[in-house]
Amino acid sequence: MDYITNNSVSKLGINLKFNPTNKRNIINSLLSLLATIFASIAVIPLLLVIGYILIKGGAQISISLFTQLPSPPGDDLGAGGIGNAIQGTFIITILATLIAVPIGVGGGIYLAEYSKNGSFAKFIRFGVNVLSGVPSIIAGVFIYGMIVSTRLILGSNFSATAGSIALSILMLPTIIKTTDEGLKLVSDNLRKGALSLGATKFTSITRITLPSAFNAIATGIILSIARAAGETAPLIFTALFSYYWADSNSLLNPIASLSVLIYNFALEPYEAQNQLAWAASFVLIILVLFLSMLSRWLSRLASR
Amino acid sequence: MNTESKPIFKLRKRSDTEKLIDKSFKGLALIMANSVALILFAIFLVIFSGSTESMARYGLQFITTSDWNPVLDNYGAFTAIYGTITTSILSLLIAVPLGVGSAIFITEDFVPIKIRNLVSNLIELLAAIPSVVLGLWAIFIMEPFLRPFFLFLNKFLGWLPIFGSEPIGPGIAPAIIILAIMILPIITSISRDSLNQVPQNLRLAAYGVGATRWTTIFIVILPAAISGIIGGILLALGRAMGETMAVTMIIGNSNNFSWSLLAPGNTISALLANQFGEADGSQVSSLMYAGFILMILTLLVNIFAQWLVKKIRLKY
């Protein structure tokens, strides 16, 4: 029996050895190099943005930044701090989460547990995808038209509540989608087991399937919180901005937020306000990156 | 079966409360699921009804005229619509080669998996950075850094109408670049997922008949994944058209039409972000009309994109 060896093949005049100077091998290496260059270019903006924010924003970090109020632009007293903006971002985001999570998880449960692949589920899943493509500014315009200009909520116009509702609209698609997909991954045997023991659908969902899908759902919720915390466009004409601390009336009044502070102060001609915008970016980036890392870690836990 | 012996379990009927809880839970979940359709419908209705006044007044002329004058109460959104379309399409021209190239880099194996995962994670982190932070960076770092380059373009290619004006700072060109940075992660991650879904056997078969790595990529892998990649590109286009903050901060917000990319311009979303807070009367209606146009544009692009992305999932 003849084996094909390098030796026997080269007797036929063919060389099977890899020849790096061959034209097609040169083109191959050049294209690989090009893809590597493209990938490096894609990473550079991230490193530059994070680098500048950490350096320029990090230099501003002090205790008073967190405890003081921002002073109105043009004031000689210095820029002050961003305390109320941090407070406001937390209030608006938490309120938005409280609105979006029950609706999103409930909707996801209906899609995955009750409707499965019926035409209704298809229709709603399509709607979820469409809603996730709606530009964030449109959510702001919608809430302005529906709530702010009509003074729907207890006669208030610009308010923290209006801002939170606008944010919750943007959080909703992510939460529904991850709940739906997380529940679909739960083994059907668990459901059958629960039902065969006489559990109602309600018990089976709340005791068996939801806990099994907990990590996947939590990943989606945290991801949507991270996105909402950095959103600006839906807030600029719903929650507006405020130079004061939030108090018990704040849900019905304009409220400050980190993202709107960055937007307003970046466009001010005063150096002190610009510096404050960098500091606020630093705090916002740390918050958002922390949440993204957390959701990543949870999703890795879920896929195990 | 022995009916005499004591049963080891007792069957009981479900109590009414249990049934009620079960039923109302289902009903509640149904309402929650319906809320999505309701919100979409409400968005459409509110923005449409808000813009009827302006629609009746200007009709299609609103799209073709570029005179936006709140003082004379006369509105035409051509500059903003043109800006939305040019910035998003030109940013795609930059982001598509970079994004698809990076996706190939991540899915191929010419560097160790650790480096590829790092690159993949870093690009995804880029998507997590809030738009307003990128805008701040664009104003103070990116635009001053790129200005000599824009000046150079104006000096040597100024006879081309698209470079025909002197860069004064904010403008359409820096907006295009910041948009390209923002949509890059979408293109990369969707292309990467599509490339990963191409069956390994196709690749092995191509190698088996003697194709090189890049012949395989161009002739086998990319064509197999193309509908997913194009879907991702369209999703990115939809995102670019609706993107607001970073663009608003760097585009200059001028409603005077100019062919030059170095001149300040406007997009629909930037127009809304800038003027909505202080607008009243018929200006609100005209802004709503512009918003309505933006919504229709992004809806069409998104629906088409989703259809394409789904197509590749069905194939493999």
Features:
A: 304 residues; MetI-like fold; 70% helix; 0% strand; B: 316 residues; mainly alpha; 11 helices; flat
Give start-end ranges of low-pLDDT stretches of chain A: none
Tell me the count of domains of chain A: 1
- CATH superfamily of chain A, please? MetI-like
CATH top-level class of chain B: Mainly Alpha
Radius of gyration of chain A: 27 Å
CATH topology category name of chain B: MetI-like fold
Count of individual helical segments of chain A: 12
| Shape label of chain A | flat
Give the oligomeric state.
heterodimer
- Largest interface: chains, residues each: A-B, 90 and 87 residues
Unreliable spans of chain B: none
| Helix-strand topology string of chain A | HHHHHHHHHHHH
Can you say what the CATH homologous superfamily of chain B is? MetI-like
Main sheet characteristics of chain B: none
Q: How much is the radius of gyration of chain B in Å?
A: 27 Å
Written description of the protein model:
The complex is a heterodimer of chains A (304) and B (316). By secondary structure, chain A is an all-alpha fold. Chain A is 70% helix and 0% strand. In chain A, helix 4 runs parallel beside helix 7 (160-185), helix 8 packs antiparallel against helix 9 and helix 10 packs antiparallel against helix 12 (271-303). Chain A starts with 5 loop residues before the first helix and ends with a helix. Chain B has 316 residues and is mainly alpha-helical. Chain B has one domain (58-315): MetI-like fold, CATH 1.10.3720.10. Chain B has helices at residues 16-58, 61-64, 78-107, 113-128, 131-157, 172-197, 200-208, 213-242, 245-250, 268-275, 282-315. Chain B starts with 15 loop residues before the first helix and ends with a helix.
Brief digest:
The complex is a heterodimer of chains A (304) and B (316). With 304 residues, chain A is an all-alpha fold. In chain A, 70% of the residues lie in helices and 0% in strands.
